[in-house]
């Protein structure tokens, strides 16, 4: 069996993993990025890169290219169950299909000096004396071991690394099912479309879920090419009913569904599990850290995963750089430098959103909230700042 040695292994080349690897490589760390897929590849998601994500894209020098791949969504429209609308500015979100965005960030990591192994299936971690010291994998048909001082699990909501270290999230109240497809030819809001926008619908027909409609990619506005999906409050609320059936019922019976009557669905529905940050997992241990969906960092209600993954990747990279400098890879050392800092940044926001989440799926509450937003602009500004800006 071939044995490879690196300072840090990052398992998973999604946005969190690639951003983490970029910061590590830029600092001169010998980092290996590993992913089971060959890029570019699709990933079910709402495709939104918020202002919080964009600060990392800009810092790592990928902002020029993303402007050629996505659209800038300057506004968010929220529609209540009684069809009252409220509109608020975003923090400068780009909407870029994940097969384009993830490939961009993976290439950015390589440009900064990270090595990337694609088609590399990690199947376990290596443990010695209570520490994670590497991973076992199959790379292009060959079984390999990669030894390291730190392993960073960025391998998504079904994380092999999280399972191997006993930190795989199972609390159903913080696991939300989601479903996504693409349509082309969707009729967009004629006033907002020229400015770039996204929208959320809290309709009684789909409770306890909501619908998103995000024009995506550089031609999203021009062609009505939209990422369309549904998010559910949590797994306990799902109870096995068909998200697809509820979506098509919304199309047939909601006034907003009329805009889909001449649209064409151009991709199959894809589902995934969304482990939200309300679980407050520790996210680290001796010799390892978990970031992004692997570490349950998704923001509740809005299912905002990329920005939290990006921030967790940056915090983990900073922690790894300091750990390498001090030659200290213990749980206690890492915890003070990654999970604690992430919590300081996100805890207040997560608590607020979780409280809102527990009520927003009630149509009566959404009706009241949206009306309140439209009649009390100071309240609206404060609420949206708390929910959508870290």
UniProtKB/TrEMBL annotation:
**Domain of life assignment:** Bacteria
Q: Where does the record locate the signal sequence feature?
A: none
Name assigned to this protein: Geranylgeranyl reductase family
UniProt source species: Clostridium uliginosum
Residues in FAD-binding domain copies: 7-173
GO MF term list: FAD binding; oxidoreductase activity, acting on the CH-CH group of donors, NAD or NADP as acceptor
